[in-house]
């Protein structure tokens, strides 16, 4: 510790309290030894503390400083004085290079004791020895430093320190207890900054553990500058973020790193419950959070995924949030981005099948404008098959979106084929002559085969559960139709007497009359209504569609 090693009292080999005459005589004597190139006699320079090179110049400089009140009191704070009968044995131990014995002697008078007149010098002398010991190596010994600071502050805090001030200076020099404490701590800070063996925040933490009169004044002096520097970093980050959102993550990280030292310092000084600390901490949280938000918003609609980096930064911002408003904002943002990150797999799937969805959509639009025929139904199913399989392979057979698309195509195909088939049955119902009916029956026999093909193709598809039931009913209906058509023999019955064609009697035995559409029309139209209503709406839509269909069918059957 330089202020001990190069202390004016040490250079002159004197203790604090030496008279002006003693100082003058010792200065003159040292110069004589130096000029004669001889070692001076033993004094109070304590060689065990470290190397001491005396010159005419530094002896004169030391003597001058001890003539100035302010310099003299600083030198006295970091040197030794004889104030008790136990001090002399301790000084002898130091002269004999046994500092541990000196620590033991003074420790007996200070340990677990309050400062009094009898142990005043023990507190000060032990503090000086420990402060010097704390700075011996490159890394400052925090434990020893803390003890040295504690003993000296207790020494100054006591009412007996007035006698020390009087001893070290003279009647004309005036300094308060608070001023003396600040003078001491500021000098320690200078030594720490020179050595770079301890952070300022750690020093503040050590000081903050002590109880002394100048504590509030000392800590205040360390608040304003860190606050201003943090505010400056936040403002710089805000400007950079607005100008370059693509670099928002790096800007947010820089705010955290650039303010870390001052942030830790303020926390150690003010504590986490202090309003000034909470306010500056919330400002850091708010700006770092905004960096994450801007980065996320800037990239979310691009091929680049901003989620993980934005989420990490926003979580860091939350660690700075104390106020309810800022904390809630952090939590809400984190929740949104967390959902985005967790949905990445689903978005990747959507990208994989986006082309197939476009194909399906275009096919649906195209076939909506085509005739509702069974041939178009088969073409629609075949054209959609590959894209449906691609979607299925990515999303899975139970995925709701896939099932909805598959069911839509199946529903369209069934409607097309049923509509085509029903048109023929309408013609059968309105036909007057046997020859017409027989021709339509033959057409129905030809039409039922591709209809069954549609049924089989749809049956192999993945369908929504509510549609599966209706499909089974439709399938049963077509199967029954097929059975009835198979019972009707091919060919036609000729007219007797070679006359013109005549209406078929309701009592005719012709095979063509065995196929009775009038009994089935209401059921067929009801089914169509259910299918269409279910697809376009919900269960209620199916019911309304069915009622309308039944009404239409009954009109046909009357």
Keywords:
single chain, 558 residues, mainly alpha, 25 helices, 0% strand, rod-shaped, disordered C terminus
Number of discrete helical segments = 25
Structural class: mainly alpha
| Rg, Cα atoms, Å | 51 Å
The string of secondary-structure elements, in order, is: HHHHHHHHHHHHHHHHHHHHHHHHH
Average pLDDT: 85
Summarize the main sheet: none
Distance between the termini: 118 Å
Helix content: over 70%
- For the record, the count of structural domains works out to 3
The low-confidence runs, each spanning 5 or more residues with pLDDT under 50, are 490-523, 534-558
Shape: rod-shaped
- Tally of strands: 0
Strand proportion, as a percent range, falls in under 5%
Detail the topology: elements first, then pairings:
Layout: H1 2-5, H2 8-12, H3 20-35, H4 56-65, H5 69-77, H6 87-95, H7 99-110, H8 120-134, H9 142-157, H10 161-168, H11 177-195, H12 200-208, H13 215-220, H14 224-243, H15 248-270, H16 275-299, H17 307-318, H18 324-342, H19 344-368, H20 374-395, H21 400-430, H22 434-459, H23 465-487, H24 521-536, H25 539-557
